[in-house]
Every structure is written in C-alpha cells, then in structure tokens.
Amino acid sequence: MKKILCLVLALAMCFALVACGGNEVDNDASAKNFVIATDKGFSPFEFQDADGNIVGIDMDILAAIAEDQDFTYDLQYIGWDAAIAACQAGQADGMIAGASITDERKANGWTFSDGYYDATQGMAVAKGSDKKSFEDMKGKKVAVKNGTMSNEYAESIKDEYGFEVVTFSTSPDMYQAVIGGQVDACMDDTPILKYNIKTGELDMKFVDGTENEPAQYGFAIFDAKNQELVDKFNAGLVNIKGHRTVGGMRASIYNAMPIEGVEKLVEFMKAFAENNPKA
Questions:
Q1: Contact yes or no for 222/81 (Cβ under 8 A)
Q2: How far is it, in rounded angstroms, from Cα 112 to Cα 139?
Q3: What span, in angstroms and rounded, lies between the C-alpha atoms of 255 and 154?
C-alpha cells in the first residue's frame, strides 16, 4: 500500500512539473521578437554614445512602445540604405530611422505607422561660408544623403537655383564633405542640422529660409506579413503619448514633442544622457 501511495505521489509531482514547464514556454512565447533596423549617426534620433550604446529619441520611443506592447526586438544599427535593403530582403521586420511619410514612398512599397514627429528639410553651410540663400548656390555643389527627403527636395529645386546635387551614403560623410570644402552646402532634416550645430557637433551654420513644408516621421515596414508590428507601434504610440509614467526618460518623450525650437532638443538629450548614462 505504501509503495502504491508513493507511486501516486511521484506521478502527481511529475504532472505538476510538466504543467509548470508548459506554462513557462507559453510565457516566453507571448513576447514576440522582431528585428528592427535603424540609421547611423542621425542624432538626436539615433546615434552611438561614447560607450558604444545606440541611443536617441527614436530609440527611446521604440523601447517605450515595446515595453507597452509586450514585444522584444533585436536592433540593427546599419545605416539608412542598409536598413531599407534589410527590410526589403526580409532580413529585418521594420525600421525606425526618422523616415518621412510620403505618398511616393507608400506607392513604392513602404507601409507606415501613424506619424510621431513633424520635420522640415533645410540647408547648412560651413561656418565661414558667405552663402545666405538658395540664390547664392548657382554653380555650387550641395550634398545630400541618398534616398532621403532632403535628396528629393534638392533634386526638385536644383534646376531653379542652378546647383549640383552630390549624394552620400551617411550623414557623417556628408557633413565632413561640407566642413572639408569638397562641397559648398548640405541639405538634411532641419532638427538634425540645428541640433548638431547647437551642440557643437557640426562646425556649420543653418541657412534660414531654406526649409520646405513639414512631413511626419513614421515607423515603416515593407512586407504585409509584418502589419502586426505596425499595429503594435500605433497602439503603443497612443499609450505613451497619454501615459507619462513609463520608466526613466521615456516619461518625457512627449513632453519634448512637438519640439518648439532646437533648445528643447538639446535639453531633452542632455537629460537623457544624465538619467541614462549606460542606456
């Protein structure tokens, strides 16, 4: 009788362990993992800090939404062109890279989330330059990053103002060409230029009056099978806009947006660095 009782108890314990193990598998599986690509050197939205960590406003928004929507992600910090290529090849599920929402991109296979930031494009020149407007750019070279809104903007006005468009793969290479004198100016997203000039990262000056009409940034996918990721991004975006008690600097994302002037961008990133030294 004792042997039978011991056998029953042993079997009961085995069933309990199996049940617990099954629950652990379910819990692990509930948090879906995605591969998300991003740009390089696009501060203050995505950039590498002194410790090699990938930080910035886009990174903080993504982390807050992932936490809110219960998913995990592997980040690919690979650059604008490479991020697009990775998504189109199925090597990444989506991208967050300060991508402007446009009808042309939608027609070419981009599917966007709801917009989360309004940005214009404008022109900057070396600090010692005497160029004060597009009218001064006749016969000059203007750098842009390939495949961006700034690229499209420059192409749309180059004939009117008589300048040559020179494309680069990354923002740092483009900026260095201006500072080094290989080109006469560059065109990029206004908040990016103003932020980096304000913080002293770029020895350049912004040319007022060169901005175009604003367009919103959005998260993007290139395959309909990843619609779930866009849906999660949109749902999380609503929640973090209205709920400011998410941990760390995430609580301040939408206190700083929409940003009224470059000063708030600088304040935001200084506070982010102070509160997240190893983030």
A1: no
A2: 37
A3: 32
In a 10 Å sphere around its CB, with 0-12 CB exposed, 13-18 middle and 19+ buried, how is residue 63 labelled?
A: buried
CA distance 142 to 166: 6
Q: What is the pTM of this model?
A: 0.69
What is the Cα–Cα distance from 40 to 45, expressed in whole angstroms?
A: 10
Question: Cα dihedral angle (196, 199, 213, 108), rounded to 10 degrees?
Answer: 30
Average pLDDT for runs of 10 along the chain of length 279: 37 36 40 93 84 88 91 95 96 95 94 89 96 98 94 97 96 94 96 87 94 92 97 90 45 40 50 45
Buried (b) or exposed (e) across 182-204, using 16+ Cβ within 10 A? ebbbbbbbbbbbbbbbeeeebeb
Quote the Cα angle for 71-59-206, to 5°: 155
Residue for token digits 């990016």? 192
27: Cβ contacts below 8 Å, ≥ 6 apart: none
Q: How many whole angstroms separate alpha carbon 74 and alpha carbon 77?
A: 10
Cis (ω within 30 of 0) for the bond into 191? no
